[in-house]
Please model this.
Amino acid sequence: MKKKSVKWWTYHVLVGGFAILMLYPFIWLLMSSFKESSTIFVTAKSLIPDPWIWTNFVEGWKGIGGNSFGVFIKNTVILVALTLVGQVVSSTLVAYGFARLQFRGKAFWFAIMMVTLMLPGEVVMIPQYIIFAKLEWLNSLKPLVIPAYFGTPFFIFLIVQFIRTIPRELDEAAIIDGCNTFNIFYKIILPLIKPALATAAIFSFYWTWDALLGPVLYLNSPAKYTVSMALNMFLSNETVSNWGAMFAMSVVTLVPVFVIFFLFQRYIVEGMSTSGLKG
Amino acid sequence: MSSPVVRENVQGEVYVPSAKARKRALKQDLTGYAFISPFVIGFFAFTLIPIIMSLYLSFTNYNLFAPPKWIGLENYKKMFTADPRYWQSLKVTLIYVFAGVPLRLGFALLIAMMLNTASRAVGFYRSLFYLPSLIGGSVAVAIMWRNIFGDEGIVNIALSFLGIPGVRWFGDPTAAIWMLIFLSVWQFGSSMLIFLAGLKSIPKSYYEAASVDGANAWQKFIKITLPMLSPVILFNTVMQTIAAFMTFVPAFIISKGTGGPMDGTLLYSLYLYLQGFEFFNMGYANAMAWIMLIIVGILTAIIFASSKLWVHYEADGGK
Model:
């Protein structure tokens, strides 16, 4: 009995210790955001702030160029909401078509979809920019949001995999009951694939919330900036060495990310384990 | 694709469908394409047309304001013969990929094996280890990373505790790339999850049989775990290599958009971005994108070709 307990302790000290080591940068960031800017690096050896101060958050919240950080958060929330709805709805429709319907050319388009999934975005980045510039979509949300309504290969694949686990007998029973294709999708499949939709929605949130390259290319006026761009601006203005404010706002942008992770970790971890492709 | 008149049934017999059956097939096709139409339209608008444009522009001199001017292979020639920064970015990226991906996967496998126990705490640890990889692409994390590697940052403090002199991460171009590699290794979580799922699917009876035969832990790892896991390792290697080649945000933030010090963190994507959107050499940047596509394609092909030697598929089709 005693031997087992020694083993148990060794395991948890080892694994738990490693987990703390991994998460230490986050803890350090959080603690530093409560320290006086000028003392952050001088006192980096001691984790706990002395004294605890809130002024970094007040200072950081003032934002940049007359736009408070609240404006950047609002912009990002709008972008995330529009993108998330588009990606999940369009990907679900496409996934149902690939997973359940029979039509000529299906294998071809599925292969195209898988190739698109692996295609480096750099190849299409510049031509897309040129097209959006010609359409006069620059400095608006359109180039970031509209493509989201045309299916996202990663989510299509994830949902296809999930639909394939649902027994076809359910569809067949529904056909006998006189359901048409859309009704089968809407009444049978949709309620059953909620976990996959939740996973897709969560990842959509993460990728859009964190995105930097797209917003940097397409949003020019500070009033339209997202949180990622605002943090990037803080960094560019770093000469004033207002570390505290930058750290405080970094913490603010991580809060929703952590909250969603701890609320929905089941969906995230399961989704990644079964079909994990990115990250 | 079968021709519209002669079709095959499920048993593979060829038959000529009746008019009614043809009508039903047409309706099926229309329904199918209605559902996948968002993807098909989006593919033409946001992928295929841009790819064709990109290929054309790679043979031109184009700055977004004046019309593109055809210059043949000049961009490609310049890249390989007259642009030392290009070679630097390629070198840095290859170091990043070939050091980062194996380290990341090795770590992922090690931790996955440690977590592959019946302990109830595993779910909790699994989530903690996965967290960095979920948010690793964010600006906040890159800013954090930038600061823990500062001259007085916690990494150098930790090194000094171990008696190792501090490293000037932002002064030395060969040290700087390691900041990015460590950041990538730190985000081993998603590979770990896939490995963990793979480990759980290995039948326990294999290990029990090996124990009966007197195999030790190392022999079990080499003879059972690695072969059984090899399809998952292949999948992870391919996906992580492609992803690593496209890394942008950490290099952009950590070097403040310059690729410094002395181009030490000038990853391929970052240099491509600078050429396209800072210097407005859009033709040149597109040529870079095509070479990147070719390199990624070759790397993937090599990994797949080599997989015949080391990937073990089960007789029943396996994974």
